């Protein structure tokens, strides 16, 4: 038979309430008693019953994470950051995806009801914002990641995609590139929209006589490869290609290598995000670094402050005191081999 909390209380010669307070980390337990209870629980190999614990505390000790997709290094890094914070607080994760289909987001949110204490929702799709408001329990703590605009009453955390794209175009121009093509992301994706806007603004400001050169993409390697092939077939190639994310940049880079081009001598390539793979390809990829794991960790900490846990309150940072909109994370230019013209700098 499994060991119960009553067995621990009997062996430690304390009340069930004292065992409960000890195991839940409450401070109103004498140190000597706390050590004895923990030692007994370990000796008896006692594991709290999750369902009973939820009923008594009205907490599931679980955080929900709803993402557009689970495929790719960006999302694995994001979940890694969230998981690190969750484990520090002995919390579990329940992760779901709406598979890049905004219309399925409502179903993913409904599936979380009653199963989690709070929600992290990445919602970069323009069409997906309304279901967030419609489907959420008003009492459910939630942090939005990369939404089009702030939702009244909800905390949000974003990346300065516009500023990052501008900085990359500035770098490429400083390296001497004058014909700069851009591989865009999905048309209904807010991150992609902001990165395209940054490219266009910087190009118009720095190279007023240059024409923008935008190719379609879907934030995956295949669309980057197709864009690279389209550029190879063009009457005149660009000096540089800036892809709206690293996965498309890597697909484009592969198409150029297949065609026998030397990167960056013949053409430069740059991306956005700095996924781990970016530093291990040849040539290594110039990109705008978004600390993806830290983005996830920061979002999780924001959620914990809303849950009001003692540990979360201790970790609360000054920037988290902002009323609803947290300061955007600013990407960092990472100059590697693929984005510097021979003899150029940056």
Automatic annotation (TrEMBL):
Start and end residues of each stretch annotated as Disordered: 310-346
The keyword DNA-binding belongs to this UniProt entry's keyword annotation: yes
Domain HTH lacI-type, first and last residues per copy: 3-57
Biased composition (Basic and acidic residues): 321-340
Molecular function in Gene Ontology: DNA-binding transcription factor activity; transcription cis-regulatory region binding
A Pfam cross-reference name: Peripla_BP_3
Keywords: DNA-binding, Repressor, Transcription, Transcription regulation
Matching InterPro entries: HTH_LacI (IPR000843), LacI/GalR-like_sensor (IPR046335), Lambda_DNA-bd_dom_sf (IPR010982), Peripla_BP_I (IPR028082)
Name of the protein in question: Periplasmic binding and sugar binding domain of LacI family protein
Record organism: Lysobacter antibioticus
Higher taxonomy: Bacteria, Pseudomonadati, Pseudomonadota, Gammaproteobacteria, Lysobacterales
């Amino acid at each position: 038979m499994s060991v119960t909390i009553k067995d621990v209380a009997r062996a430690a010669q304390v009340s069930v309430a004292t065992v409960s307070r000890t195991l839940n980390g409450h401070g109103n337990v004498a140190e000597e008693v706390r050590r004895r209870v923990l030692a007994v629980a370990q000796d008896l190999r006692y594991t709290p019953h999750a369902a009973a614990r939820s009923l008594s505390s009205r907490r599931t000790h679980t955080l929900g994470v709803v993402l557009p997709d689970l495929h790719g290094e960006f999302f694995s890094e994001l979940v890694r950051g969230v998981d690190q914070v969750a484990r520090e607080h002995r919390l579990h994760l329940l992760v779901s995806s709406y598979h890049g289909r905004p219309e399925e987001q409502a179903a993913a949110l409904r599936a979380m009801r009653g199963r989690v204490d709070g929600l992290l929702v990445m919602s970069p799709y323009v069409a997906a914002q309304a279901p967030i408001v419609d489907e959420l329990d008003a009492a459910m703590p939630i942090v939005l990641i990369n939404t089009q605009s702030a939702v009244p009453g909800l905390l949000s955390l974003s990346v300065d995609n516009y500023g990052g794209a501008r900085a990359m175009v500035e770098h490429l121009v400083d390296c001497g590139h004058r014909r700069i093509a851009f591989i865009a992301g999905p048309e209904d994706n807010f991150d992609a929209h902001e990165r395209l806007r940054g490219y266009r603004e910087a190009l118009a400001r720095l190279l007023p006589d240059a024409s923008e050169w935008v190719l379609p993409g879907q934030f995956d390697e295949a669309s980057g490869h197709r864009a690279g092939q389209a550029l190879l077939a063009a009457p005149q190639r660009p000096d540089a290609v800036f892809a709206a994310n690293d996965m498309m940049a890597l697909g484009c880079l592969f198409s150029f290598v297949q065609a026998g081009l030397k990167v960056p001598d013949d053409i430069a390539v740059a991306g956005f995000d700095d996924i781990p793979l970016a530093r291990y390809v040849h040539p290594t990829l110039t990109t705008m670094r978004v600390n993806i794991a830290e983005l996830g960790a920061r979002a999780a900490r924001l959620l914990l402050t809303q849950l009001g846990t003692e540990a979360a309150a201790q970790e609360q940072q000054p920037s988290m005191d902002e009323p609803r909109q947290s300061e955007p994370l600013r990407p960092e230019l990472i100059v590697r081999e693929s984005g510097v013209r021979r003899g150029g700098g940056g």
